[in-house]
Amino acid sequence: MEVKTPFDLAKAQENSNSLKKKTKFVSLYTKEGQDKLAVLIPGRHPCDCLGQKHKLINNCLICGRIVCEQEGSGPCLFCGTLVCTREEQDILQRDSNKSQKLLKKLMSGTENSGKVDISTKDLLPHQELRFKSGLEKAIKHKDKLLEFDRTSIRRTQVIDDESDYFASDSNQWLSKIERETLQKREEELREFRHASRLSKKITIDFAGRKIVEDENPLAEYHSRLDETIQAIANGNLNQPLTKLDRSSEEPLGVLVNPNLYQSPPQWVDQTGATSQKKAFHSAGSELEFNSYRHQLRIQDEEFQEGFDGGWCLSMHQPWASLLVRGIKRVEGRSWYTPHRGRLWIAATAKRPSPQEVSELQTTYRFLRGKDVEFPNDYPSGCLLGCVYLTDCLSQNQFKDQYPDMSQESDSPFVFICRNPQEMIVKFPIKGNPKIWKLDSKIHQGAKKGLMKQNKAV
């Protein structure tokens, strides 16, 4: 008889419990959490796991496709762009023999990269025939949709009977002439709409051996912009649309606001436009109308002076201070500017030498021919003031129009400046080439810090 100790009984009971608790399932994941069902097939094959089942290689930088380990490094299976890991990318950027071998290895399977190419697939005859027929149907359907979209305006056009030609008799606001014109136009369109096929135009090209038919014979019928309706709506049925008689129009009647209780501004001809108008009157009504429109333009210099866009010009000292003081009246440049109106002047950071200041003062004493009060100092790197730019002339035009100032500048283009204004407090500022725009905060502060300047002209 076998005697069992308490230790043997406990061990036997533990073994029996382990047999009862035997697992009845198989885990699909390893201890690290990897999927055991993710099978890696040899070679490059399309996979839509998005990097969830296989390791991620990279994303295609062109089409954005997520390339996993099953698809492998190489040309993208969608667009053909090279996709590789970071380590392989570092090797390719070295431009060494190893990188060239790796590039050749990765791009070796370009022909068999898996892109959808019907010509390289092995199709059976009936499959190829079905594919071609499906492609032809798709192309026809595409053309049908494009044609449907192209003609949607004509098909969706709403004909309002109350405003169409067919309601011309019931419109009590039409005159007798307008009513007759609309009825005549209605008959023409009816004949055109219900015309016989015998009147259809067909062009026969014997040299090219082809027949050309009229593509859209009803385009005129469906036209929304009819000349007759436009003429009646504008009230000039009996006059051509391009040559209207504007002599009966009041010169300034359409420009006067009826809510204003004061006389309208009167045009004062200071450029001799009246004599030019009489001289060109014999050339035709078109030139006369252009001259009439030219007189309607508002030539208000005070309005232009009041408009300030914050444009600034950087200049070296001492020329900048002389221009703001009104001693220097023009400024030369090698480029043209269309800017007119207020122009702010900023001094560059370069400090002038005493010799330059002395020579320039001597020059302007000789040019002006009178005692000129020059500035005591010439600050640099700051905003000095502003002038009013009236014109930008070439050197030849400048000499013809301003012979008394022709010695002040010999540059290809000359800025004519007047109404200089100097600032009480000079703002520190950094200049830019050519004409540039001031900062909005500096601009607002500069306008408040201007003082009237006595002209030295």
Automatic annotation (TrEMBL):
Domain ASCH: 313-427
SUPFAM superfamilies cross-referenced by the UniProt entry: PUA domain-like
Intracellular or extracellular location(s): Cytoplasm, Cytoskeleton, Microtubule organizing center, Centrosome; Cytoplasm, Cytosol; Nucleus
Pfam families: ASCH, TRIP4_3rd, zf-C2HC5
Quaternary structure (record): Interacts with the thyroid hormone receptor/TR (via the ligand-binding domain); this interaction requires the presence of thyroid hormone. Interacts with the androgen receptor/AR; in an androgen, testosterone and dihydrotestosterone-dependent manner. Interacts with ESR1 (estrogen ligand-bound); competes with UFSP2. Interacts with UFSP2; competes with ligand-bound ESR1. Interacts with DDRGK1 and UFL1; the interaction with DDRGK1 is direct. Interacts with NCOA1. Interacts with EP300. Part of the ASC-1 complex, that contains TRIP4, ASCC1, ASCC2 and ASCC3.
PANTHER family (UniProt xref): ACTIVATING SIGNAL COINTEGRATOR 1 (PTHR12963:SF4), THYROID RECEPTOR INTERACTING PROTEIN RELATED (PTHR12963)
Gene Ontology, cellular component aspect: centrosome; cytosol; nucleus; RQC-trigger complex
One MF annotation (Gene Ontology) recorded for this entry: zinc ion binding
Taxonomic lineage: Eukaryota, Metazoa, Chordata, Craniata, Vertebrata
UniProt record, GO biological process: rescue of stalled ribosome
Function: Transcription coactivator which associates with nuclear receptors, transcriptional coactivators including EP300, CREBBP and NCOA1, and basal transcription factors like TBP and TFIIA to facilitate nuclear receptors-mediated transcription. May thereby play an important role in establishing distinct coactivator complexes under different cellular conditions. Plays a role in thyroid hormone receptor and estrogen receptor transactivation. Also involved in androgen receptor transactivation. Plays a pivotal role in the transactivation of NF-kappa-B, SRF and AP1.
CDD domains cross-referenced by the UniProt entry: ASCH_ASC-1_like
Protein's name according to its UniProt entry: Activating signal cointegrator 1
Keywords recorded for this protein, A-Z: Acetylation, Cytoplasm, Cytoskeleton, Isopeptide bond, Metal-binding, Nucleus, Phosphoprotein, Transcription, Transcription regulation, Ubl conjugation, Zinc, Zinc-finger
